[in-house]
Amino acid sequence: MAGDFRQELPRMTHPSFCPDYKLASYWLDAAPLAALPVLGLPAEIDVAIVGAGYTGLIAALTGARAGRGVVVLDAEDAGFGCSTRNGGQCGASLKIGFDELAGRYGKPRAVALYGEALASLEFLTGFVEAESIACDYKHCGRFTGAHAPGHYEDMACRFDTNRRELGIECHVVPRSQQHSEIGTDAYYGGGVIPGHTSLDPAKYHRGLVDRVLAADAAVHPHTPVVEIERNGGGGFTVTTPRGRLRAGAVVIATNGYTNKLGALSDLSRRVIPIGSYMIATEPLAPGVMDRLMPRDRVITDSRRVVLYYRASPDRSRILFGGRVALAETDPAISGPRLHAILRQIFPEIGSVGISHSWMGFVAYTFDKLPHLGVRDGLHYAMGYCGSGIAMGSYLGHKIAHKLLGHGEGDTAFDDLPFQSRPFYHGKPWFLASAVAWYRLRDRMAR
To answer: What does the H/E/C string look like for the chain?
Structure first.
């Protein structure tokens, strides 16, 4: 299985790696995946949820607290996927600019769609606080570096639109002042969105698991779903290698791992799994982080093949991510490539090496928007386009309310067509050429 790096590869000799490096998520050091017992499956349940990431767990929690019997089924350990492998950056934005979205759907609908993105971060903030989840949640803001001079001008126009049309607090920072935000000359200025946040994704996920179990829902790891059949009298029969169960309703919450579900090929055709790769550095010398990231923002840049990075919650290391290969690769190969880019941005880190290298799959959609709804009787929420912490949590809550028949489940995404493309069946054969084209455009932008 691509992305399944449970067995560490042979030791590499590349000098970027420190001697005791791990091909595993940095976040799992402090919050290992929950060691859940293997329990027998019930014969019958109100709701079966496929996928134990943020979406599935919050849907389970919402359903269980409403009095429904809920089981969560996952092919791997709960949290094996990108819920514990992401960068811990929490935003309130969409992958489409407001003007493009308004041109496609009209201004009122564009405002409503962006309103859902803003609501997702508001939901996450309120949820973490209300549930008292200790996950290093921080209101840090985001800095986006302009990869080229023209990108800075485009950013200034986009920020002006976002302030005027959406009321989003944001401002640009010229290159002459960017050292107040980031200790590099690699960018041509940038922009700041103060309202964005950060967290430790594995601690957040572990907190969700604990609360789901406390609500008397069950989480079944190593229980892949191999078939879902409609019952003649209503509901579904869900088949796994560990047995079958009857469920009144089924929620698909597999996001970047949906293509692993052969029985769900229709949804697999509508999301594009894309590997995102990360490293963590060894601890930096005292004082270095204060020069490199003085405001402790989460950071991205304006490249089409985007980079994203931040300080670790204790500000001892840099956590750095992006895509460094046309096709999917493994962390033993991606780690040194990411490290080389990191050193270009921050030459000051010198010989500081890699302590962790890992990857996970996010899910993009053909229209670059998240989707939720009901298809062939199955409820689903997926396609967060790299913004899954806030949006995945929010839409997990929303899809549970839809299942419960509550108006609270209504969203501006509800009647959007969930697109696919001819000849696409879950394996993105076109991805390498698309990445190559975007990378060429990034190089030309210099």
So the answer is: CCCCCCCCCCCCCCCCEEEEEECCCHHHHCCCCCCCCCCCCCCEEEEEEECCCHHHHHHHHHHHHCCCCEEEECCCCCCCCHHHCCCCEECCCCCCCHHHHHHHHCHHHHHHHHHHHHHHHHHHHHHHHHHCCCCCCECCCEEEECCCHHHHHHHHHHHHHHHHHHCCCCEEECHHHHHHCCCCCCCCCEEEECCCEECCHHHHHHHHHHHHHHCCCEEECCCCCCEEEECCCCCEEEEECCEEEEEEEEEECCHHHHHHCHHHHHHHCCCEEEEEEEEEECCCCCCHHHHHCCCCCEEEECCCCCCEEEECCCCCCEEEEECCCCCCCCHHHHHHHHHHHHHHHCHHHCCCCEEEEEEEEEEECCCCCCEEEEECCEEEEECCCCCHHHHHHHHHHHHHHHHHCCHHHCCCCCCCCCCCCCCCCCCCCCHHHHHHHHHHHHHHCC
